[in-house]
Each structure stands twice: as structure tokens, then as C-alpha cells.
Amino acid sequence: MAKVKVQNYKGTRDFYPEDKRLQKYVFNIWRSVCERYGYEEVDAPMLEPLELYQMKNGANPDMIKDELYALTDKSGRDLVVRPEMTPTVSRMVAARRQELQYPARWYSIPNLWRYERPQKGRLREHWQLNVDIFGQDGLQAVFELLQIANDIVVGLGAETGMYTIRINSRKLVNKLCELLRLCEPEASALMQLIDKKAKMPIEEYDQKFNELVDGDAAMKSLINEFLAATSYDELPEELRNTDEAAELRQLLDSCSDNMMESVVYDPLIMRGFDYYTGFVFEVFNEDLENNRAMLGGGEYDGLVGAMGAEPLPTAGFGMGDVTAIDFMQSQGTLPELWNETDIYFVVLEGSLEAAQAAIRKLRQGPRINVAVDSTYRKLSKCLESADKRKIRYALICGENEVKSGQYQLKDLKTGETFTMDLDKIAQALR
Ligand code: HAM
């Protein structure tokens, strides 16, 4: 038979043990921070009916057009491999709108599929933490989400200066459009242009901007003043005196009062998704070579209502595993990750049967993971193998050890060796 070398599909990753260990490290931080704030884990199928993404205001229009993995099942049903979790959790809340307890605090870590051009930080399959709160009014909900986002990034080892949390208000942008008397489709065109400003050449932006303002000098200057603002105080005066700006100021004040120094106002944060209604935010890696969003979200009050249930205030965010790992790598915050196996138990030739009781005893102790090496290779080879797998400790067991009950435990990081009985070993590892 001809041999075929098959590679994994473009834009996806195989997870060898060391890769999975790294991903689990990120998941553990995500889980522990979410649970600290009282969020409960949920999950759902990877396949969804196509209609879920065809709803008005259902998702990011560009994503629907270009990025969906769509398929038809054997009975002719149109399905989609989920590109994001937000429509799914909204569907789940709508289905039990009356029974759920509010505010409902949910988190999930789904794998998502998007037909993207694979590049740094963007793959076709990624895992994404979703944190969503249903039935809590905007300001409080968003403040809580920003705290969670901040704690997660700090959990990834970040220090001030390595990241920014950039927030904006879609309501404030709507207000700007109202002041400019911009109706649809111009209002949406302006938001899309602002959304893409940072990603397009300046000449292209200028050309599109000039087409939009069509020679109206007052409009041009108000938009430019709005886009240049880096704080509430720098907003154009006409906007500063609105309720929308007051709400933004309150959120910024809550963040600075609570030591969240990395939160800044950024009028360019728009979020392409059609469902966001109020505050929107993104967390940026400030490493210049990786200066991209690693987390994004906002308020999306309309989505549960769009699924036929009574509407409720909703907000949430998503954070990808690829960008989280890139962040730690680019900022040098990645710790040394040890194997989940605590002890590499090396059995010397002829001692396997006698060693079984000791192996059993260690495994029965609280949370000690033991891998047995009974290959009877040279001891140095066994230790090298444990070291290569990032197992921290090796235990050497021959007949003498079984008889005396004293074992040599070798710390493969420092090279130190200790002689102890099994109880002491278990205690030391704990
Ligand atoms: P999003 O901005 O598309 O939002 O994704 C959120 C984060 O997921 C991004 O900041 C990035 O870290 C990561 N991400 C997105 N696409 C990819 C990709 N192709 N490869 C690797 N990482 C990626 C949403 O998906 C919203 N549904 C989030 C949300 C939850 N809004 C409310 N609740």
C-alpha cells in the first residue's frame, strides 16, 4: 500500500502533552478566576442550526459572509460549526428564560471554528473563554466583567504597562451620530469605518472618511475631535454633557477607584459585531510585535429577546487561548510548567513485584501521580527520560529500598537527592 503522509488541517493545532499542559494552565486560570466571581460553567454542542446566525443583529456580518464552516446533514438540515459562543448561550437562556435565576453568571470554554487566513494570533480553530452575565444592569455588569478580565490577565502574569483594557460606549457613538444627524446607512458606515481605522492604510481611511462627510466641515471636525479624545474630559463639549458620557465617566471612575490602572477610554473600540448595544471593550497586548486584542466583549441587550423570549440586560466577553499564550510568550510571563506526574518511579531489575506495594501506597495518598518505569534501562537513561518529560521527581526502587523502606527521591530540577520513607515523600510533595 502506498504511504501517505497526512498533516493536520491548516490553521489547527495538534496538542502534544507539553502543548496541552500549556493550554490547561491557561484554562485553570480562566476557571479559577470565573469561579471566584461566582460564575458557573456551561457547555453546548459544537454544531448549531444555521438560522441561529442568520438572525438580524445575530453576529458579525463579515464573519457570517466569509468565515462560517457550514454543512448539510444527511437529512438536509443546514448546520454551522460554531464560530462563537454568544448566540449559543443566548439561545440557552431564551429556552429557559422563566426558570433561570438572575443574574445568571455563566462561563464556558468552547472550541470555535472560523475560516480565517491563518496568521499570528488567528487560527481556524481556537478555544475561547466566554464569560457572560444575564439579568444585571449594564454598568454593574460591565464593571464586574472588567474586573474579571483584569484578574485573568494578571493571572497570566501581567504587570501594569504590559496590557491595556480599552473601553468605549456604543451609546455614546449613537449619540454622536444623532448630533451629526447621521441616519442609516451612514451611521453604520461611520461605525464600520472607525472599527477598521487601525487596520487600514491611512490614505484609504482618509478617502472613505472624506466620502462619508462629503465636504461638511463641522461634521468632520466633530468626528475628529471625538476620535482624538483619550479621556472623558477631552470629549467634544456637545457630547460631554450627555447621559451617555456621564455613564462612561462613571464606569471609568469605578475602575480607577478600584486600582484598575490599565483601563483607558478608546473611541476606536467599536467591535464589529452587530449585537453590541452599550459599553464595548477589548484588552490589548501592549507588546509592540503582538499589539492585538486578546479579549473582547460588551453589552448585548437584544440577543435573548431576538430569540423570542422576554428581553433582559446582558453583557459578556470572549478571550482566546492562542492570544493568551502569545501574550505570556511575548511578555515573558510564562512559568516553568511541570508534568502532572509528580514521581517517575524507576524500578530496578528484579524488584517490580516487591515495588508494587510502594507504588500503590503513593498513588493512594492524596493527589500524588506516579508513572512507573520498569524498562530496566540504565538509571541515567531513565532519569533523562523523566527530565525530558518535565517530571520533577524520580524515585529509585530496588530490593534494598523495599526492604529498608527508605527510598531515594531525586529532584530533577536541582539535582538534589533525599532518602526518606514513603510517608515523608508524600508529605514533602504535598
Ligand atoms: P471576538 O472578538 O471575535 O468576540 O473574539 C474574542 C477573542 O477571541 C479575541 O480577542 C481573540 O483573543 C480570540 N479569537 C477570536 N478569533 C480568533 C481566531 N480566529 N483565532 C484565535 N483567537 C481568536 C467574540 O467572539 C464574542 N462572541 C465574545 C463575546 C462573548 N461577546 C459577548 N460574550
Can you tell me about this structure?
The relative contact order is 0.12. The two termini are 52 Å apart. Helix 1 (17-36) runs antiparallel to helix 4 (138-155) and helix 4 (138-155) packs parallel to helix 10. It is built from 16 helices and 17 strands. 40% of the residues lie in helices and 20% in strands. By secondary structure, it is an alpha+beta fold. Strands 1, 5, 6, 7, 8, 9, 10, 11 and 12 form a 9-stranded mixed sheet that branches. It is elongated. Histidyl-adenosine monophosphate (HAM) is lined by residues 84, 86, 114, 116, 122-123, 126, 128, 130, 132, 293-297, 300, 316-320, 322-323.
Please specify the SSE layout and strand pairing.
Blueprint: H1 17-36, E1 40-41, E2 47-49, H2 61-66, E3 69-72, E4 78-81, H3 86-95, E5 104-108, E6 111-113, E7 125-134, H4 138-155, E8 163-169, H5 170-179, H6 186-197, H7 202-213, H8 217-228, H9 237-240, H10 243-257, E9 263-265, E10 279-285, E11 293-299, H11 303-306, E12 314-320, H12 321-331, E13 343-347, H13 352-364, E14 370-373, H14 379-388, E15 393-397, H15 399-404, E16 407-411, E17 417-420, H16 422-429
Parallel strand pairs: 1-5, 8-9, 13-14, 13-15
Antiparallel strand pairs: 2-4, 3-4, 5-7, 6-7, 7-12, 8-10, 10-11, 11-12, 15-16, 16-17
The protein binds histidyl-adenosine monophosphate (HAM).
